[in-house]
Write a structure and sequence with these properties.
By secondary structure, the chain is of the alpha+beta class. Helices cover about 30% and strands about 20% of the residues. The protein binds a DNA duplex through loops.
DNA sequence: CTCGATCCCTGGACGC
DNA sequence: TGCGTCCAGGGATCGA
């Protein structure tokens, strides 16, 4: 499942592999995950891929054409979200086409840039420079670029659960379920704690944990779960370093307590019930606070 | 503002 | 071996 480290890995690989190549033609398969398939077909051929960068969990392929002015400002781009199972990488000429190949771009060196996505949870859109700017405005700070002050402000002003905040792309862009759980475990914070109720030191811990984990994961090319491969067809290694994600019932590597799984923000959330203390009281039905309140009423 | 529920989609795991 | 069923999950959307 491509999150920030996986998408970063793919972006770097694509940059190495296809930057500078010109697109000769486009062949589309299923297009229900593409905003504007007609424009992809008409606008991409003839354009060169100037560069590939990551933006949150998106891949941004900057496209250029001789007629385009020199300034990057007016260059259009292809925005790609890999969803759960999306893969984007160049294939050698004649390599058999995998099932669920939905977009094929023939490059000027004979290779084919193919988008493969069995579940089609991915997204693709061809955007003008202007609509691209507008689109990207909706997202929060990059967790690797954000300073501690910005991170603290984003987290401690919200009353939502910390797990929901980490997953919310308007708050921070690029964090997904795996790295949210791993960071919370490392910082010893329960996923249901409210952002605004975290102590300052906990926010600092979380900030460091998140950055450290993301950076480490990028170095070893991300986590390969459900067949994730990067732009060079290589799997990542970070899944071997998962401390909580997917480890329900197994002992916490810090304290041996069984890892538990709960649903937070609609996602499986793995945590250690001992290292990551559940919030007191809270507003989940029948809380301690309410019971005390009722008792006090009876006394009076 | 924040929540949960629902939908999208397919492959893989599991039970019989 | 072959069914059927359930589940995974990012994001959009909707109603509470």
């Amino acid at each position: 499942m491509p999150e920030l480290p996986e998408v970063e890995t793919v972006a770097r690989g694509l940059q190495r592999q296809i930057a500078g190549r010109r697109i000769l033609s486009i062949t589309l398969g299923k297009t229900d995950f593409i905003n504007n398939p007609e424009e992809i077909e008409t606008e991409l051929p003839g354009r060169a891929i100037r560069g590939v960068v990551r933006y949150g969990k998106f891949l941004l392929l900057r496209l250029t054409r001789k007629e385009d002015a020199e300034e990057i400002e007016c260059e259009p781009a292809l925005l790609v979200h890999l969803g759960m199972t999306g893969m984007l990488r160049p294939h050698a000429p004649g390599e058999p086409q995998a099932k669920h190949t939905h977009v094929v771009a023939l490059l000027d060196d004979g290779r084919e840039l193919r988008y493969i996505d069995p579940r089609r949870f991915g997204r693709m859109a061809y955007l003008s420079a202007e609509s691209l700017r507008e689109e990207l405005r909706r997202f929060g700070a990059d967790p690797l670029e954000a300073g501690l002050e910005e991170f603290t402000a984003k987290i401690s002003q919200k009353r939502a659960r910390i797990k929901a905040l980490l997953l919310d792309q308007r708050v921070l862009r690029g964090v997904g379920n795996i790295y949210a759980d791993e960071s919370l475990w490392k910082a010893r914070i329960h996923p249901k704690r409210l952002g605004a109720r975290l102590r300052k030191e906990q926010v600092v811990e979380l900030y460091r944990a998140l950055q450290g984990i993301l950076e480490r994961a990028i170095v070893i090319r991300g986590s390969s779960i459900s067949d994730f491969l990067d732009a060079e067809g290589q799997p990542g290694e970070y899944q071997r370093r998962h401390r909580v994600y997917g480890r329900e019932g197994k002992p916490c590597v810090r304290c041996k307590t069984r890892i538990r799984r709960v649903i937070v923000a609609g996602r499986s959330s793995y945590f250690c019930p001992r290292c990551q203390q559940a919030p007191r009281g809270g507003r989940t039905h029948g809380s301690e606070a309410r019971k005390h309140g009722e008792e006090r009423l009876k006394k009076k």
